Amino acid sequence: MNGALLVGGTSSDAGKSLIVAGLCRLLHRRGVRVAPFKAQNMSNNSAVTLDGGEIGRAQALQAYACGLEPSTRFNPVLLKPGSDRRSHIVVRGQPVGEAGARDYHEWRGRLAGIVAGELASLRAEFDVVICEGAGSVAEINLRATDLANMGLARAAAMPALLVSDIDRGGSLAHLFGSTAVLDEADQRLIAGYVINKFRGDPSILAPGLDMLHRLTGRPTLGVVPFSDELWIDAEDSLSTPVGRRVGPPEGADTSRPTVRLSVAAIRLPRVSNTTDVEALGCEPGVDVTWVDDPAAVRAADLVVLPGTRATVSDLAWLRARGIDAALIERARSGRPVIGVCGGFQMLGRRIDDPVESRIGPVDALGLLDVDIVFDPNKVLRQVSGTGMGHSISGYEIHHGRIGRSGEQPWIEDAVHGPEGAVRGAVRGTHWHGLLSSDAFRRKLLREMAVEAGKPGFVVSETTSVDETRNAQVDLIADLVGEHLDVPAIEALIARGADPRAPVITHSVG
């Protein structure tokens, strides 16, 4: 088998990332040399590659599903929203500037060549490339500058599957309408549909799928059921809802510790790298929930202040909601707080940011004796070292530098020197992924349980974040393998779209 496939969607968060990861793992299991690809991603949830580049977190997970190390080749263009109107542009893993929706078309010519070159290179090296679209394929107002959806499919002569999240309602109309608004050449590349997150009796849905087939001439190649066993984020941190529990569903673990730790992860407006809290969610005795109010911050045993793409403006948001006061109360009473990257910067004394916010020096929360100065040159690297007597590893993505610190470092970086800071029960670091180091996390949880007044908490000695992540990817592949017509999809990859596929005609007015 040799070829490529685009998995597009009727909307953002339709399940494209999940379907791509599942197909990648399925093909990898069968010995197919397969690679993921997303021409252009918009997300603040990112990962660092071995060569010091930055890509979308979903593509890092999809690479993992393929048995590959993350590479900038898998996501050559990454847009990181810094506000509702402007995004920072990352090309081949490195920041190159920023743009708004109106002036992004000026980048299109340059980026199109980069995208085409990377995809052609991957197709020459691998048997199969599974491409993920972005947002909705039906954003016809953006079609002229499209790099990731039908523009990519047309340029590379790829067939496309269209995925719809039935949990949102209106899936049949979304699939029909998304196909119908495309021009004839784009429509002919839409080869089939996938329904995602279905709940209930499939026999009730079947007549609707038959009617959709008659109306469009395209089959539904699978109905993937909703699964509450899937909880590891694959894509956009901005879709993370307040109140969402991070971890296996209630009652999933067989041994429920009688003493449990509650963790409040603060849902910042521009939160990034939400995957940092997943490591805590893996622990059977730890309950992690996304929150945005002072009461939840005060009530939790542990608070995590995660990364952000807009440190200064999200710090102002904390203050406007009164969360700053709740964090200061916790610190004064010796109750644990962890800040990661932008969250760590907020915990310091002062932030001087002429790069992202361009506001200049502002006072931070003052919980750590650390001054942060932003540098135009972004730190992008994988890191390793020692913390609390255990080997640790992670990655860094930040402009902020520790300009001055009167605190003890939290961790020792074997390559770049001491990193982070600690004062009492308040700890901070620029390292993402630190809590995925199992032995380090266990020792840290024991310490924080004592600080939280729960010395009876017993941490699991067997939890492995890597094994949990691998099990989640296998679960995705099992769902896809069981509920999609995989032979039909493999045939589609090998032969391409049918050039005689019917076109849905419509008129306006």
Description:
The chain has 509 residues and is α/β, with parallel strands linked by helices. It folds into 2 domains: 255 residues, Rossmann fold (3-Layer(aba) Sandwich); 200 residues, Rossmann fold (3-Layer(aba) Sandwich). The chain has a 7-stranded mixed β-sheet. A 6-stranded parallel β-sheet has the order 2-9-1-10-11-12, with helices on both faces. Strands 20, 21, 22, 23, 24 and 25 form a 6-stranded mixed β-sheet that branches. Strand 22 and strand 23 form a beta hairpin. The protein is globular. The protein starts with a strand and ends in a 14-residue tail after the last helix.
In short:
Residues 7-231 form the CobQ/CobB/MinD/ParA nucleotide binding domain. The protein is an alpha/beta fold.
Write the layout of secondary structure elements.
Elements: E1 3-9, H1 16-29, E2 34-37, E3 40-42, E4 46-48, E5 54-56, H2 57-65, E6 77-81, E7 86-91, E8 94-100, H3 105-125, E9 128-132, H4 150-156, E10 160-165, H5 171-180, H6 184-187, E11 190-198, H7 202-216, E12 220-225, E13 245-246, E14 261-266, E15 271-272, H8 278-281, E16 286-291, H9 294-299, E17 302-305, E18 307-308, H10 311-321, H11 323-332, E19 337-340, H12 342-347, E20 350-353, E21 360-363, E22 370-387, E23 390-405, E24 411-413, E25 417-419, E26 421-423, E27 426-429, H13 438-451, H14 465-483, H15 486-495
Helix pairs in contact: 1-2, 1-14, 5-7
